Amino acid sequence: MPHPVAPPPYYDAPSPYHGPGPDPAMSWTASAGTPGRDRPIVTFGEPEGYDERGRGRSLIGRVAPRTAAAAACMVLGLGLIGGAVTGSWLLDDGGDTGTASTFSSAAGLWHNVPVDELFPPTVQGTGAGPGGADRTWTRIAVAPATGCADAFDPLLRKVLAPVGCQRLIRATYTDATQSYVTTVGLLFTKADPAGMAALAKRFQTEHLDRRTDLLPLPYAAKGTAAERFGAHQRASWTVSVLADAPVVSYAVSGWADGRTVDSPQPAADAEVSGATTPAAQAGLGNEAQGLADRVERRLRQYIVGTATEKPS
């Protein structure tokens, strides 16, 4: 008789204000698991045979050693494959969810983090000046959170248009001697990760951060050292597109005495040893890059902190 076939197996923080004009103390509004997957379970029935009287009997004792070894290897292999697949599910799901959560959380930081945290009243720039000299910057004005209409040169505004403008926050600082003024800004966009990655790649491949017709504008608060800091006073600047958050950070620097500048120089060039332009000699590239770097670092601390918060 044939054997039977087995079944298939807050930003409302005030800022010091001195003088008429738009109140720089105005600021933005403050506000105070991945499902698991069950691993498949595979079971194997005990093979049966029949004796000469047609009675069922176990064939376990009659299985040849090589057949038993093959069966054991098959079970072990299925276990290893199942474990690997389960592990990949966990890694993929957690990574994707974590990245999306971080990006999404960063979009709301402009109104969830106090102004004094993103733009501190005093910023220490250890080693940020020419030749590694220390710098200290004092905040003299905070712009109200606004749109982007009057914050960038027309061509730069056009370049940034694909990622949208959710909110722009800015502050202006002066150095310890009040000889230089620098506006630093954070543009929170409406873009998704793909949009930010595309913009970052375009800036890199087309060197858009070095074009003198693509500059951010200063925030010149009246009654401060930056009162005469206008479009013609811009001496050096830097623009950085964050690919892992919906943010574009920038800084632009100039002299506090209102002198005009014919040819602004990118901060990356003005910081080069041996550069002889007026902006480089004055250290204005260091002013822009130093402040931009430190504000961006603070922003990233909050991005990481928000992403790792545990729900209460």
Keyword list:
312 residues; alpha+beta; 7-stranded mixed sheet; 9 strands; globular
Describe the structure.
With about 300 residues, this protein is α+β, with helices and mostly antiparallel strands. The protein is built from eight helices and nine strands. The protein has a seven-stranded mixed beta sheet. α1 crosses α8. The termini are far apart.
The coarse overall form would be: globular
Strands, total number: 9
Side-by-side strand order of the widest sheet = 3-4-5-6-8-7-9
In N-to-C order, the SSE pattern is EEHHHEEHEEHEEEHHH
Mean pLDDT value? 78
How many distinct helices? 8
**In this structure, how is the largest beta sheet organized?**
7 strands, mixed
Q: What's the short story on this structure?
A:
The protein is built from eight helices and nine strands. By secondary structure, the protein is α+β, with helices and mostly antiparallel strands. Helix 1 crosses helix 8.
Topology:
Blueprint lengths: L47 E3 L5 E3 L6 H42 L2 H4 L2 H4 L3 E4 L9 E8 L11 H7 L6 E9 L4 E9 L4 H14 L29 E6 L5 E9 L9 E2 H4 L7 H5 L1 H24 L5
Parallel strand pairs: 7-9
Antiparallel strand pairs: 1-2, 3-4, 4-5, 5-6, 6-8, 7-8
Helix pairs in contact: 1-8
